[in-house]
Amino acid sequence: MNDDADLQPAVAAEFLALADVLDSATEAQWDTPSLCAGWRVREVIAHMTMAARYSEDAFMAELRRCDFDFSRLSNEVASRDAGLPASQLVGDLRSEVMQHWTPPGGGYHGALNHVVIHGLDVTVPLGVPRRPADDTIRIVLDDLTSGGVHQHFGTSIGGRSLQATNLDWSYGSGSVLRGRAEDLALMLCGRTVPAGQIEGGPL
């Protein structure tokens, strides 16, 4: 995926919107299980905002400590940093670093997918009726389907037609999977969405 600097404002907007949602969250809400297996809201936000707390050198030192196993690193840092004050985690979401952050090799497309999907991982179980802007979620859906990003999550869309009910967006042909754009994005990423949100068999 090419690095498209035009997407930076959308990335910043998503981080700031999520910070606004969590700014007044209770301790119980921070401890709510997210859609990421084994992670509460705290761990997801700690994971999302690593770049705000770790310089490139510090990140590489942590990665070496974990024998270059990024999954291990993600779990250890999320578990450790989840203990930080909620106000600090919200501040990290609002940081200039995160607003201009891009994952290695992923550019702003990768950053947008990261903040949108993890944002939904948090807001869906909290019951917060928030969805990204139409243009933003459309880009994410295009990246997950036409860009093949869904394959990293073990989902298959061969012979499937995906149709968004709240957005002018569709993909493919075959057995129909129909639902809100944000729920389709979550399913493409291997998440389990609340019952009744999607029509059609799982991916």
Quick overview:
This protein is α+β, with helices and mostly antiparallel strands. It has eleven helices and four strands.
How does this model look, in words?
By secondary structure, the chain is of the alpha+beta class. The protein folds into 2 domains: 1-105 and 117-130; 131-196, no CATH class. It has 11 helices and 4 strands. The chain has helices spanning 8-22, 27-30, 41-48, 50-53, 56-65, 70-81, 86-94, 96-99, 107-126, 134-145, 181-188, and strands spanning 160-164, 170-171, 175-179, 198-199. The chain has a 4-stranded mixed sheet with strand order 2-1-3-4. Helix 1 (8-22) packs antiparallel against helix 7, helix 3 packs across helix 6 (70-81) and helix 10 (134-145) packs parallel to helix 11. The mean pLDDT is 91.
Q: What is the global morphology?
A: globular
Largest sheet: 4 strands, mixed
Helix content: 40-55%
Strand ordering within the main sheet: 2-1-3-4
Q: What amount of the residues lies in strands? A: 5-15%
What count of helical segments does DSSP give? 11
In total, how many beta strands? Answer: 4
Radius of gyration: 17 Å
Poorly predicted runs: none
Order of helices and strands: HHHHHHHHHHEEEHE
Structural classification: alpha+beta
Mean pLDDT: 91
- Total domains, how many? 2
Taking the alpha carbons of the first and last residues, their distance comes to 23 Å
